Amino acid sequence: MSTAAKTRVVGESVPRKEGVDKLLGRARYLDDIDFEGMWHGATVRSTIPRGIIRAIHFDPRIDWSEFAVVTAFDIPGKNLIRLIFDDQPCLADDRVNHCDEAIVLLAHPNKQKLRESLAAVHVEYDPLTPVFTIEESEGQNEIIWGEDNLLKSFLLQKGDVDAAWIGAAHIVTGEYRTGAQEHLYIENNGAIAEYNAESGVTVWGSLQCPFYVHKSLMAVFNLPEDKVRVIQTETGGAFGGKEDFPSTICAHAALLAMKSGHRVKIVYDRMEDLAATTKRHPARVLHRTALDADGKLLAMDIELATDGGAYRTLSSTVLSRATLHSPGPYVCPNVRVRSSAWATNTVPYGAFRGFGAPQAIFAIERHMDEIAATIGMDPIELRRRNFLHTGDTTATEQVMRDPVILDKLLDRALAESHYHARRARFAKENPASPVKRGLGISAFYHGSGFTGSGERYLNSLAGVDVTPERKVRVLVSSTEFGQGTNTILTQIAAETIGVDYSDVVMAPPDTSIIPNSGPTVASRTSMVVGRLIERAGAQLLDMLRNHASLPEEFTPDEFFDACERYRAAHGEVVSLCRYEAPPAIFWDDETYRGEAYPAYAWCVQVAQVAVDTVTYSAEVEEFWSVQEVGRVLNPVLAGGQIEGGIAQGIGYALYEKVIWQNGHMANNQMTNYIMPTAEDVPPIHVYFEEIPFAHGAFGAKGIGELPHDGPAPAILNAIRDATGVSFTAISLLPEDLFAKLSEHPVAEPATV
Amino acid sequence: MSATWPAIRFTLNGDSREVHVPPMKRLLDVLREDLRLTGTKEGCGEGECGSCSVRMNGELVNSCLVPVLQAAGANVQTVEGLACDGEMHPLQQAFLHCGGAQCGICTPGMLIAATHLLERNPNPTMAEIREGLSGNLCRCTGFIRIFESVISAAAQSERSTRAR
What we know:
The structure holds two protein chains of two kinds.
Chain A: H1 19-24, E1 39-45, E2 51-58, E3 68-70, E4 95-96, E5 102-108, H2 111-118, E6 121-127, H3 134-139, E7 150-158, H4 161-164, E8 170-178, E9 190-196, E10 200-205, H5 210-221, E11 228-232, H6 246-260, E12 264-267, H7 270-276, E13 283-291, E14 297-309, H8 315-325, E15 334-343, H9 357-375, H10 379-386, H11 406-416, H12 419-429, E16 435-448, H13 454-458, E17 461-467, E18 471-475, H14 485-497, E19 504-506, H15 525-547, H16 556-570, E20 573-578, E21 587-588, E22 593-594, E23 599-612, E24 618-628, H17 635-654, E25 660-661, E26 664-665, E27 684-689, H18 706-709, H19 711-723, E28 729-730, H20 734-741
Parallel strand pairs in A: 1-12, 8-28, 10-11, 14-15, 18-19, 24-27
Antiparallel strand pairs in A: 1-5, 2-4, 2-6, 3-5, 7-15, 8-13, 9-10, 9-12, 13-14, 16-23, 17-18, 17-20, 21-22, 23-24, 25-26
Helix pairs in contact in A: 5-6, 8-9, 9-19, 14-15, 17-19
Chain B: E1 8-12, E2 15-19, H1 27-34, E3 53-56, E4 59-62, E5 75-77, H2 90-98, H3 107-120, H4 126-132, H5 144-163
Parallel strand pairs in B: 1-5
Antiparallel strand pairs in B: 1-2, 3-4, 3-5
Helix pairs in contact in B: 2-5
């Protein structure tokens, strides 16, 4: 049983496991790898959003015999990217459904010649009418996917919403919108592949989920498990952007390797990566809320719609998480959430840190402030009156058995930010100043691990083994891409087994070596996979005590001696554990009811924002985040997760806007897709309350996605506080502020 | 083919090097492809992200915007030149302990920019640190721990200066 018992390694800020290699510049990312005789690959992409491919012309001035050329025709297995639903082709065949969809692949030994050849492939289309927005897709004038453009829908119901309106003292409605967001990992997508008729396909890639790629390659090449090998290389940021997309680029590189007979590397440049890879789903959320005279929630009627792009990819699961986070951390007897994901002719939207939750939480947390303003109540007080507490029931009728301490988080957030004193100061200063300051808050949860029955279906396997070189190796498919997987899993193994941090290493992230511990997503690595490592470590000690005379108390040396005795007598020293759901966890996919998540991380954030009424810029000046994520396994890494997530959330709110032109991302450069820089990120204050979770590794719950969920509503609430003007859509750039603030002039400064 | 290009010579991390490459080839590509120093990264290829930052004659430059011809005769420093005799540079040590590196892809450029900053200004204010690193994008950390790393390294070198 995990407890907050005294630990040696867990809870310490040991340095990042692969940190020295990264700092010395010797960590090998995909593009740092060079094989003798390797060719380079490139992609011919659609220039229209929707149409029938009539013909592909290859300019005769180019000697194409020097090239490997791959089209859909060359695919040995199924022409699809296998994930959840088989609708996305690996290469467009007879039609294209979004701009920048891959049609032809080219490889050549010379990068320069390859680049020049791209323009010499001409695709001839019969264009079809494209669909670009949720509204156009809902309208169904053009059917672009299935029978009705509807990628997925959910209905979550609790109580009787329709009966609740009559007795309500207040009914408040609101519509909230969020835009697309780019992951903007600094390392673009890339893959290297080799193909051999006997041994099959091997790919190296910058990726999060080796077994997702593995499964998809098996389908594309019609190969059995043991003929496909996927190796993750050092990965320079992912944030969900390397969850599903690598299945595509790895398949492309492998097809070129097969056709050319050489190893082939494909590395996107920034413009191609931005135009052709996934982004966060845009969303539209309608709230209709009934309250009694005391401001207690009576009913929440929520309609949530997302833009899924051209293929379903992860839209169903993103929608599920959005649905389950849409009612916020509040108690309400009557809840109805109707959610739907719609197809459009844009690049498929995919996984991005938060996975639907940031969209849903933006809506509910903005809406709470709108309700407060409408009924004349302080937004803090409104939240407090409706917070979930231990023992309360959520919208899916999940009973909160573990402690819920939202009041405590809120109190600490208010105290640390000197919320009331600051607001009083701004109330005094604002009227005489062209710069209006305000404070805004957001309160929210993030469900840790896969939704509903997801972890049961994943059935993850993970463990440890001991090498003859006297190292414990962690065996997982959970990958490192900056968030700290290597470090925390190593800490957990060292702690459980009773060896030093330096005695533990990660097994290479290679599907021919590691078991499938599931994808590296959904804030599941610390809690779910970490717990498997903790159990596997304990199981290993039992095994050594029973079969290799490991004493009850031992030194690391005695431990490794016992391992060698075991090896001599029984062979490999390995201990694997399979996922076991915590007891009393039940989820019904049909009725959408039950334990939506085994655990929740909780957070209250406060943003201080200054709005300049002359330049119309909004700047976050300071930020506070108080969270409960179970036991903190590594304070430095955990703090870094929170700060980094908040910075991305600030970008989501105020900086990052994808501009679409006929279905193509028009600002696909770092010059004009703007993320916060070192000069834009405010001081961020991070505080943890720790309540160990009984079924997570040493009490850990999920942490990685949580911090991205709350900044946008907190910031827009602060802008409302500063200016009295409500903004309901992000991203909110100066031109958007100008458009609305110039209509609603805020109090004029006495002098300018 | 390479032999057809005239030699371009420069000093790289203290060693003199000679390359025979097209003069307009990007310094970034010469470092990575011809000299196999892959610590310097490409993030955007247009001088926005700073992942390819190197120092050239004491100036901080984006090596994706520098034709190698411009580096002829210059003194170039990359991340591989920071550690000395197997000992990490104080900034590298500070990044390791303060959590200044996460995914690590911006780290080499960030370290070079931070080195440049501290050499010109050993005790920078927070505003000076922010300004000094504003040409280097990090998507993981939110910069906070990078700032702390720079402050910690500055304090460390001040302590060692005093100790002398």
